[in-house]
Amino acid sequence: MKVKNSDDNNICQECYSKYKRITPLINPESCLRNHRQYICSTCGRHICADIDGNGRFRALFPFKTLEIAKLYLRSAEVILEKACGIYEIENDKGRKFFKIFSSDEDMNAYLSKNRGKKCKTQKPLFKTEYYKNYEDNQLRKISAKETDIYMEEKTRESPEWSKI
Ligand SMILES: [Zn+2]
Ligand SMILES: [Zn+2]
To answer: Of the ligands numbered here, which is closest to the C-alpha atom of 23?
Structure first.
């Protein structure tokens, strides 16, 4: 299932975003300085590919919207080394969030460990067809200088995407 709309041509084929500097979304400078990043070889976007103190991948945390989850999809794929999909999960209070899994089986395993949560569609809302490999130097911590340059570019791009 691919997004089909007039924006299709602008979307990076490698990292699925049309905004090249939109990430990191939260505390960008600190994320860039302290966390391992996935660096898109096509558009240069950096995506947090960090693993937290409990061994959990940040890219696999729940996201508020499908659009935000899409921004982290490539990072999740690279960490899992598999094509992935984004699923809409609903909790027992009817609150929805979006989570990335590499298969319907993985999603169902998550649901079985999290009673009260469900996935009405049982299928991803968005998924990638196949896993594309990456080069070693695309997954690393960036230097202080690289951070400064990226932050400058991010500030310049931000008026474009601040509307979304
Ligand atoms: Zn980060
Ligand atoms: Zn890209």
So the answer is: 1
